[in-house]
């Protein structure tokens, strides 16, 4: 017997809000979702939940709607789209790798600023000067994380 789930149940299981679930149906990432006769309430099947969980993972990794749409179309095409699917995922992996590098620089900056204030608190002028030099070297490398 196949379990039928409400939008509330699916939202809890997938971690996507109800408006997001409706939007994903509207833009064709899922569905069309079956509706209950009289009330018109959405009724999801396990296969819908599996697809939505996969979409939630892609969303959490910063994959946009158009790439999700491409990913879904490639899944439907199967092995014929393997290369395109690989390239799409590797492109996002490269983006995340660049974000990690940038976040590492941000982390270094914050730690150095904390060390600066630590040196000031201790009255250690030599340590403060070393930290100031390190911060000065970091400044050109600071950049916002691109999304």
Automatic annotation (TrEMBL):
CDD domains listed in its UniProt record: HTH_YyaN
PROSITE patterns: HTH_MERR_2
Species name: Deinococcus rufus
InterPro entries in alphabetical order: DNA-bd_dom_put_sf, MerR-type_HTH_dom, MerR_fam
Segments forming domain HTH merR-type: 1-74
Keyword Nucleotide-binding: no
Keywords (A to Z) from UniProt: DNA-binding
The organism's place on the tree of life at top rank: Bacteria
Protein name as it appears in the record: MerR family transcriptional regulator
């Amino acid at each position: 017997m196949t379990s039928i789930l409400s939008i509330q149940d699916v939202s809890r299981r997938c971690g996507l809000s109800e408006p997001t679930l409706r939007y994903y149906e509207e833009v064709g990432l899922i569905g069309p979702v079956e509706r209950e006769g009289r009330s018109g309430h959405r009724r999801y099947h396990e296969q819908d939940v599996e697809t939505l969980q996969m979409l939630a993972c892609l969303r959490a990794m910063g994959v946009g709607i158009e790439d999700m749409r491409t990913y879904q179309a490639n899944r439907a095409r199967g092995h014929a789209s393997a290369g395109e699917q690989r390239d799409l995922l590797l492109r996002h992996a490269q983006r995340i790798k660049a974000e990690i590098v940038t976040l590492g620089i941000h982390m270094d900056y914050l730690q150095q600023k904390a060390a600066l204030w630590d040196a000031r608190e201790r009255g250690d002028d030599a340590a403060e000067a070393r930290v100031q030099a390190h911060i000065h070297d970091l400044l050109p490398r600071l950049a916002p994380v691109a999304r």
